[in-house]
Specification:
Elements lengths: L4 E6 L3 H15 L4 E7 L2 H8 L16 E8 L2 E7 L7 E3 L2 H10 L20
Parallel strand pairs: 1-4
Antiparallel strand pairs: 1-5, 2-3, 3-4
Length: 124
């Protein structure tokens, strides 16, 4: 069964933050490590530059910079994302869980009508 994963977004500092978290938690609690890292490619960044609202000051970084880092803290898997100027923290919800949430959210008062969508797998 897939679990819900915490996703932390950073402007451009994901790598430094993750290294600090892993260093601190592994020395105290163990079972903390970087699992894998993905990097921005030039083609991906060119596609972002084609978005009308995208300006260089909110771009996530140059080609070859860290895009995502999947890591463990005390055995809990977390995803860190360098998102440029698009910041926010969220949960990575497996598609089967997202569908269940959408089906049941109409029964919950105060539940947002938008914003819970199936997650797209992050390439690794």
């Amino acid at each position: 069964m897939e679990r819900i994963m915490l996703a932390l977004m950073f402007r451009r500092e994901a790598e430094e933050a993750v290294k600090s978290y892993v260093s601190l938690f592994s020395s105290v609690f163990g079972d903390s490590k970087i699992l894998w890292t993905t990097y921005y490619g030039e083609e991906e960044l060119e596609a972002l530059r084609a978005v009308p609202e995208m300006t260089e000051d909110i771009m996530p970084g140059p080609a070859g910079s860290v895009r995502t880092i999947r890591f463990l803290l005390c055995g809990q898997e977390i995803l860190a994302i360098n998102g440029g100027g698009f910041l926010g923290n969220s949960l990575k919800v497996p598609p089967c869980t997202s569908a269940a949430i959408r089906r049941s959210r109409s029964n919950c008062s105060g539940w947002p009508s938008r914003g819970v969508e199936p997650s797209s797998p992050v390439a690794g």
